[in-house]
Amino acid sequence: MIDGAYRRQIILSELYPCEKVFVVKPQPLAYRDEPTENYWDVQDFNTEMWFNSSYAAEVAGIELVNDLLKKGHLQSPTPKDPKKYHPCTVIPIEINKPLGVSNYLRERMSVFEESHRAAKRLFKSEMKCLKSTTT
User: Fold this and answer.
1) Is 20 in a helix, a strand, or coil?
2) Which of 44, 48, 106, 107 could be 100's S-S partner, Cβ–Cβ 3.0 to 4.6 Å?
3) Helix (H) or strand (E) segment spanning residue 108
């Protein structure tokens, strides 16, 4: 598990050697149904955009490699050359509430704990699927 939000933006490409990457998204996919109305709304939007921008770019890079593999423009790994490209699946874990600028000024354990619970549920689900396909 990696928490580097205060040191740098999300860098998923470093995890590319994995076949599956589970990542807690910095923001949910929820649509803002209310327009920004004041300074703090604008700051919240700005914070959300910055956190999501690196996530979106990193996922797009992995998806590009996956797409090039499907089209045959990149080679999959072989026993002789295991460093070649392979498919990588990014599995997002979303938190249930949007987080704005005031939430990033002071980290809350509740956000970490909620994300951790969501990740554990997803891991258990993935393990059940894996066990059912191998038996």
Assistant:
1) strand
2) 44
3) none
